C-alpha cells in the first residue's frame, strides 16, 4: 500500500516532540513506506468512524485520518481488506490526549488536502501580499521582491546607493532586480552598444552562480541579459590583472600566508604571530594604501586592538615589505593585494562598466572597493550596494566615503524580514553576542526593531551521543522534509568543515537521497551539501547544520593559529558567531541543528 502521508498541520507539532518520540514516529512512517501497516485502532465514540490512532511510543499515539485526495485502487483496497482510503498522519500526542482529540474530529473539520509536491505542510504563514508567492514554486519565490521595495530598485539616483538590513530583508533580491532594471534601461538607451555594461558582483562562487540563474529568469531576452556580467569580486580582480599582464595570478589563502609569515617572524625575532603579520598587512597597510614608513608610523590602526610602539612598527614594516616583495617576485598574490593591483590598472585604463551592483558588500576589503570605484565612472546610478554588517565574516573595516563612494542621503535601512521566519530569527540572533556592528558609512548599525512577517515552526536542536547517531538522525529528518513535499534542491545540509560534509553526503546517498555540492548545478533535483561558508548569501526552504559541537565550532585549527594572541582569538570567536548566524538564517521555513556531546558554546551560552 502507499506510504503514510503527512497532514499540512503535522510538522509544526512534530518539532515540539522529544527526540525519542520523533524517532519512534519516523519508525512508524518507515514501516508504511516498506508496505507494513502497523496496527491501527478504531476510536470508540469517535464523531468520524474512519479516524484511527496508532501506537507511536509508550503512552504516545498518532492520530490518523483518511486522505481524501488519494483514494485506493482496487488492489490496494483488496489488500487492506476495506474500502478505507489511504491515511495521513495528523498529529502525535500523549495517548489520552490523542484519544480525546480523535473523538472530537468530524468529517467537515478535517484539515484540507494533504501535502503534495508544493510542500504545504511546511510553508510559513505570511501577510496577504505574500500569500501567493509563498504558495508558488520556490524558484519563483527566490526572485519575488516585496511590493514595498520596487521604488528603490527602480529608482533614479544622483550617485551611489546603499541598502542595509538583517537576514531575510530581501537585499539580494533587490540587487538582482536592480541589475535587471539597469540592463533594461541600458538596452533602451544604447541599442547599438550591446557590451556588458552592468556588473553584478558578490562574495562567493555559489551565490554568483545562483544570481546568474535567477537573472536568467528575470531577463529572458538574450540581448538584455548579455548586458549583465555576474562575477565574484575575486574573479573580477583576476580577470583584470590577467588581461593587462597576460599572466594568470597564483593565489595564496590567508592560512597559507599565516604559516609562511610565522617562519619570517621567527627568523626576524619578532614577538608576533604569522596571523598577526598577515592581518596587519591586509587590514592596515593594504587597507589604507600605505606606501611609506612614516605614514605607517603615524596611521590610526582602526580595528586593531593590540598596540604597536613606533619601534615595533618599524620592525613590522620592514618584515612585511621584504616578504611582500618576495611574493611579487614569486608571482604569488593574496586576494586583497590582487584587487589593489586591479584598481591601479583600471585607474590607468579607465572604467569597464556603466553601472555596478554589489551584493554581500559587508565582506569586501578596501582594495576591492577601490577596484569597484575604478570600474565605473562616478555619476548617477553608478554603484548600488547591499549588505549587512551583522553578517560580516571577515575582519574588513570599510569607510565608503574615504574610498570615494558617497552614499550620504541615499541610504536605505530595511528592518522587516520576509524571507526568514520570526522563530528562526528569535533563535539565531543571540548567537551574534553583540548589539551593534560598524557599518560601511562609519555609523553603528543595530538590529533594533528588526522583525519578520513570517511565522513557522521553531528550530530543532538535537544532541547526539555519537557521530553515527548524529548522521542517522539527520537522515531521518531530511526524509521527513522530503515526505512533507519539500523539493530536494530546496534543502541544504552543511557542516563547519569538509570532514563533516563528507559524512553528510555519504549518509544521505546511502539512504537513496541524491546530493550535490552547494556550489553545484542549480537545476539538479538533489539535496545541497557543503560547508557553512558556502551557504553564505543563499536561500533554502529547509537547512540542517551538523557538527555544531564544542570541539568543532570554533575549530581548533583556527584557535591554534591565533597562537595565544588575544586580539586574534577575539576575531576568531566573532567570525565563528557570525558564520553560524549567517548559516542559520539561510532557512526560510525550517532549521535543524545537531551536535555530538557538548554543544558549541556559541549556542549554549544563552
Automatic annotation (TrEMBL):
It comes from the Bacteria. It holds the Pfam family UvrD-helicase. It catalyses: ATP + H2O = ADP + phosphate + H(+); Couples ATP hydrolysis with the unwinding of duplex DNA by translocating in the 3'-5' direction. One of its GO terms (molecular function) is helicase activity. The keyword Membrane does not apply. InterPro entries: DNA_helicase_UvrD-like_C, DNA_helicase_UvrD/REP, P-loop_NTPase, UvrD-like_ATP-bd. Residues 144-453 form the UvrD-like helicase ATP-binding domain. Keywords: ATP-binding, Helicase, Hydrolase, Isomerase, Nucleotide-binding. Residues 65-86 are annotated as: Disordered. Its EC number is 5.6.2.4. The keyword Cytoplasm does not apply. ATP binds at residues 165-172. This is DNA 3'-5' helicase.
Amino acid at each position: 500500500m502507499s506510504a503514510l502521508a503527512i497532514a499540512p498541520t503535522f510538522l509544526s507539532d512534530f518539532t515540539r516532540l522529544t527526540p525519542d518520540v520523533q524517532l519512534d514516529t519516523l519508525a512508524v512512517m518507515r514501516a508504511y513506506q516498506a508496505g507494513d501497516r502497523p496496527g491501527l485502532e478504531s476510536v470508540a465514540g469517535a464523531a468520524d468512524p474512519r479516524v484511527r490512532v496508532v501506537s507511536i511510543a509508550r503512552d504516545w499515539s498518532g492520530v490518523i485520518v483518511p486522505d481524501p485526495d488519494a483514494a485506493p485502487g482496487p488492489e490496494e483496497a483488496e489488500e487492506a481488506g476495506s474500502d478505507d482510503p489511504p491515511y495521513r498522519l495528523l498529529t502525535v500526542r500523549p495517548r489520552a490526549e490523542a484519544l480525546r482529540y480523535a473523538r472530537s474530529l468530524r468529517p467537515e473539520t478535517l484539515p484540507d488536502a494533504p501535502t503534495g509536491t508544493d510542500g504545504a505542510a511546511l510553508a510559513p504563514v505570511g501577510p496577504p501580499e505574500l500569500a501567493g508567492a509563498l504558495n508558488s514554486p520556490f524558484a519563483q519565490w527566490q526572485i519575488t521582491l516585496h511590493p514595498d521595495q520596487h521604488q528603490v530598485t527602480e529608482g533614479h539616483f544622483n550617485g551611489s546607493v546603499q541598502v542595509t538590513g538583517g537576514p531575510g530583508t530581501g537585499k539580494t533580491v533587490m540587487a538582482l532586480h536592480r541589475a535587471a532594471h539597469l540592463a533594461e534601461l541600458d538596452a533602451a538607451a544604447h541599442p547599438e552598444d550591446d557590451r556588458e555594461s552592468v556588473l553584478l558582483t558578490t562574495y562567493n562562487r555559489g551565490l554568483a552562480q545562483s544570481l546568474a540563474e535567477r537573472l536568467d529568469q528575470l531577463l529572458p531576452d538574450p540581448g538584455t541579459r548579455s548586458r549583465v556580467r555576474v562575477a565574484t569580486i575575486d574573479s573580477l580582480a583576476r580577470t583584470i590583472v590577467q588581461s593587462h599582464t597576460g599572466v594568470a595570478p597564483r593565489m595564496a589563502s590567508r592560512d597559507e600566508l599565516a604559516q609562511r609569515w610565522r617562519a619570517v617572524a621567527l627568523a626576524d625575532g619578532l614577538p608576533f604571530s604569522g596571523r598577526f603579520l598577515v592581518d596587519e598587512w591586509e587590514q592596515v597597510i593594504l587597507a589604507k594604501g600605505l606606501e611609506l614608513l612614516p605614514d605607517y608610523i603615524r596611521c590610526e590602526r582602526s580595528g586593531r586592538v593590540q598596540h604597536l610602539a613606533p619601534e615595533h612598527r618599524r620592525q613590522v614594516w620592514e618584515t612585511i615589505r621584504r616578504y611582500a616583495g618576495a611574493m611579487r617576485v614569486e608571482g604569488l598574490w593574496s586576494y586583497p593585494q590582487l584587487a589593489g593591483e586591479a584598481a591601479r590598472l583600471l585607474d590607468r585604463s579607465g572604467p569597464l562598466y556603466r553601472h555596478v551592483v554589489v551584493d554581500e558588500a559587508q565582506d569586501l576589503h578596501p582594495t576591492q572597493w577601490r577596484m569597484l570605484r575604478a570600474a565605473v565612472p562616478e555619476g548617477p546610478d553608478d554603484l548600488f550596494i547591499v549588505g549587512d554588517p551583522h553578517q560580516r565574516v571577515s575582519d574588513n573595516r570599510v569607510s565608503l566615503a574615504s574610498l570615494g563612494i558617497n552614499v550620504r542621503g541615499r541610504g536605505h535601512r530595511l528592518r522587516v524580514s520576509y524571507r526568514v521566519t520570526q522563530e528562526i530569527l528569535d533563535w539565531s540572533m543571540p548567537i551574534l553576542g553583540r548589539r551593534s556592528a560598524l557599518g560601511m558609512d562609519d555609523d553603528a548599525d543595530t538590529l533594533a526593531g528588526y522583525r519578520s512577517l513570517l511565522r513557522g515552526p521553531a528550530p530543532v536542536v538535537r544532541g547526539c551521543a555519537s557521530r553515527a547517531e548524529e548522521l542517522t538522525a539527520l537522515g531521518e529528518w531530511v526524509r521527513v522534509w522530503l515526505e512533507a513535499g519539500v523539493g530536494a534542491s530546496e534543502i541544504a545540509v552543511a557542516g563547519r568543515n569538509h570532514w563533516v560534509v563528507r559524512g553528510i553526503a555519504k549518509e544521505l546517498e546511502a539512504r537513496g537521497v541524491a546530493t550535490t555540492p552547494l556550489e553545484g548545478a542549480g537545476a539538479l533535483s538533489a539535496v545541497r551539501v557543503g560547508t557553512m561558508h558556502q551557504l553564505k548569501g543563499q536561500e533554502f526552504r529547509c537547512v540542517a547544520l551538523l557538527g555544531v559541537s564544542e570541539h568543532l565550532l570554533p575549530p581548533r585549527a583556527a584557535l591554534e593559529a591565533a597562537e595565544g594572541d588575544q586580539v586574534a582569538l577575539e576575531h576568531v570567536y566573532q567570525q565563528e558567531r557570525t558564520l553560524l548566524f549567517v548559516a542559520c538564517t539561510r532557512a526560510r521555513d525550517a532549521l535543524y541543528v545537531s551536535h555530538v556531546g557538548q554543544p558549541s558554546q556559541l549556542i549554549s551560552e544563552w
